[in-house]
């Protein structure tokens, strides 16, 4: 077997395992612009818990489709609504919630997919959430983010987590989150360490803002934090180091302590994952 074929098989294995974790996590959960179209049947919004997928930098919602299709095959939902957010924040919708399918997926697409101002992308995320609230009267939701998508999510929470008039976050999945620096931009391999309590020894500007989440992060929310390792000595996935990814656990736990409850096995490109009270560190 060639090296290329082996890498493809490993990549496919990793995506399958990530998809399985998402199904286990999300399947357990029983705006400017016009709102999404509602089904002709009247829906009880309190019963619906949509899961929003946010793509990475320079990417698109298509990159999240392998995970979304896995959730469909597992029977989590058969409803996928597409929300496309223009640069000015206007949201265009395709699809609608369906009666009886109470865990729909919303695939979010940022048209300006290289926007680096996280306050802006957080505002776009809010437009999607409030659009769903206005149309379906949802009170709860989940989020899945990949790379930059994680930053849109956490900066949304930074500003809105305490707003009781908005839907409340239940579950969050962070994949390859660069919460405290990006290799080649403001970080280099093996530069940062973590204290025994999990606090990073170096904090970039964005992360310093996110420290406020230690007090604001929703108490009811559960988080799965997934990250990879190229096993090439950088202890990173090529963009963010494992320690930078693990920085999320410092502000996810209100006391800076992590309790390990369960674990998943090691794969060639993802570290083993251990669940905590409100987070999972890999």
From TrEMBL:
A GO term for molecular function: hydrolase activity
Tagged with keyword Hydrolase: yes
InterPro entries tied to this protein: AB_hydrolase_fold (IPR029058), DUF915_hydro-like (IPR010315)
Pfam families in alphabetical order: DUF915
Ranges of Low complexity composition bias in the record: 269-282
Keyword check for Lipoprotein: no
Chain residue ranges for the region called Disordered: 262-282
Keywords: Hydrolase
Name used for this protein in its record: Cell surface hydrolase
């Amino acid at each position: 077997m060639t090296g290329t074929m082996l890498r493809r098989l490993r990549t496919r294995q990793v995506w399958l395992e990530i998809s399985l974790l998402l199904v286990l996590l999300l399947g357990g959960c029983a705006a400017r612009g016009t709102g999404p179209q509602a089904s002709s049947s009247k829906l009880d919004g309190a019963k619906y818990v949509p899961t929003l997928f946010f793509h990475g930098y320079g990417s698109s919602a298509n990159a999240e489709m392998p995970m979304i299709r896995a959730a469909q095959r597992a029977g989590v939902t058969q409803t996928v609504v597409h929300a496309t957010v223009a640069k000015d924040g206007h949201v265009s919708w395709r699809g609608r919630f369906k009666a009886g399918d109470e865990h729909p997926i919303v695939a979010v697409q940022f048209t300006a997919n290289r926007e680096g101002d996280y306050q802006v992308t957080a505002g776009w995320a809010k437009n999607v959430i409030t659009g769903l609230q206005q149309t379906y009267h949802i009170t709860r939701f989940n989020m899945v983010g990949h790379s930059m998508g994680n930053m849109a999510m956490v900066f949304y929470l930074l500003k809105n987590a305490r707003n009781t008039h908005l839907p409340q976050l239940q579950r969050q999945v962070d994949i390859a989150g660069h919460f405290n620096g990006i290799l080649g931009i403001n970080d280099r391999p093996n530069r940062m360490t973590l204290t025994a309590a999990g606090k990073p020894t170096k904090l970039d500007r964005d992360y310093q803002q996110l420290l406020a989440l230690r007090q604001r992060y929703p108490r009811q929310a559960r988080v799965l934090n997934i990250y990879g390792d190229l096993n090439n000595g950088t202890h990173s996935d090529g963009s963010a180091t494992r320690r930078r990814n693990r920085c999320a656990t410092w502000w996810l736990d209100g006391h800076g302590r992590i309790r390990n409850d369960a674990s998943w096995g090691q794969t060639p490109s993802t570290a083993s994952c251990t669940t905590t009270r409100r987070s999972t560190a890999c």
